[in-house]
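Minutes, project check-in

Agenda point 3 was the complex the collaborators sent over. CS summarized: two entities, 612 residues total, and the question is how they sit relative to each other. Sequences were read into the notes so everyone works from the same version.
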Amino acid sequence: MPDRPGFTDADATYAAIVAAIEAAGDERALAFLSRLVLLLAAEVRDHETIVAMLAKASEDLDRTE
Amino acid sequence: MNGAEAGVATGCRDRAKFAYRRAPDQDAATPVRCPVVIVGGGMVGLTLALELLDQGIRPVVVERNDTVSEGSRAICQSQRSLEIWDRLGAGDRVRARGVTWNTGKVFLRDTLLYEFGLLSKGTHKMPAFVNLQQYLVEEILIDRLLAQGGDIRWRHACTEVDGRDDHVSIRVTTPEGDYRLESEWLVACDGAGSGVRKQLGLAPEGEVFPDKFLIADVRMKASLPAERRFWFEPSFHSGQTALLHRQADDVWRIDLQLDRHADVQTERDPERVTERIRRMLGPGVEFTLEWVSIYVFQCRTLDRYVHGRIIFAGDSAHQVSPFGARGGNAGVQDANNLAWKLARVIRGSAGPGLLPSYEAERIVAAREDILHSTRATSFMTPRTRATRAMRDAALRLAGNDPAYRPLINSGRLSVPAHFRHSPLSTADRGSFDAALGPGSPAVDAPLEADSGSGWLLNRLAARFTLLVAGDGPPGSADRPSVAGEEVDVVRVGGAALRDGQGVAALRYDLEPGTCYLFRPDRHIAARSRDFDVQWLERAVQTALGYA
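CS then shared the predicted structure for the full assembly.
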């Protein structure tokens, strides 16, 4: 993973994501999250980093759900 | 393409018919032995037959039918296929007979999402793609094969194969009964439903997609340009995908994705098909149906292509979905890869690694094709609510911002494989700054001679060829002989053959004295910054499978 500056205002970021999902509504949450993932991937612009993040998310899902 | 339900010829043109003829071998007291029997006289088998003739081997082609393929099947003939046929004396006819196209358009609903161009700007002899129905390609290849004295036997069906240590025993069934042939090698080019493969009990491994597609050839006079048009969720075919592509003789290919639970018999009904196409083309467009078929797609390959003396090529070895034109074109490249190797095995000049390299190289190519084909099919036919949401998100984002267009996959179009880890390649001698390298297919470039302008690929014959940049050694009159192979010398950028536009120099990173060794199938075997006879000898030996 490339070095990045610290997470600025993590609480506000989390709250903004939650608010946006709620605004989309349950019916459209999947469509919203799909767009969000693609937008973030386009910002990261690094296949290896994205694959590593996907693996991390999958591992966490398997461990906790 | 593969997984076809039986096609329906609805108003099809009269296909060329070829009469059954009794072969002299049928009257022989003992089975006649030939060097190679090719099972299947389709695009791949015919290309292989021409390639073998070019290598000095006369194969016997047995074909159970008496005609060319039904329906358009593989329509997009790639630049690499055109270049292969060009050396075999058929490329210009395929290009002239077909429809050259350079533009692809992708629509979301009825709005143009983006378009892409394939223009080569005059730096390749052959265009990126020519659309020509498979049956018309086959007619041209048959003409060429017969003109070359080829042996193709219509209504001679291979009905039994028995692989032995030093040959294959073959039962051939004809309208006049059975006869037996013996062949040093048998190449199965008998398609996705290969009878030879079934006789050997072999099953390709891979993925079968449940979605069904309606494929129709439609004849109509239309003023539409010769371009590939692909729709996601068009208004005329709700929630599905559609493809429109022009072929020769005012025939158009239409692919319509169907519901995966669609009933094949119902969907194949000409009235229902006509209704669907009328919705697509709009009112007032006159058309007639030529051929209709319902397909499911499989992306799969055998794990080995050489089984003793029986070899698989084309769809008998590997199958992909049609979005990307990777089926027929891969088969043509199989034939191109195999012929020179098999010829040397038959003549006894091959190293132990030469024939296995066919399998090693072409399986790499097949896996690459399958990867692209599987991704394209998955994008077009998402299987779950979540993957559909992702696909739809990519489409909507791409509609608003060109940066997201690379995510859209309506089929990544066929390009030849680079065999970067080929056992036949030699490591670079010196450093190079070019996308091409050992294992890469040769790329064309315009050249000028006193006799007129020409093309690099037309200078690379079906032998090993040493390309030398500039006027350094060895001389063009030299034809070094290495390991029994005469190596042609082609000098580029010198006084006799000029690289006026500098395209060859750029594509191959040529400096005076740079040498490239090309294999007989026009893949790069080795390259060096200067000529050295020992380097050449080692590179040829390695390319012959002696490493």
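Noted in discussion: DSSP finds three helices and no strands in chain A.
Follow-up: revisit at the next meeting once the mutant set is ready.
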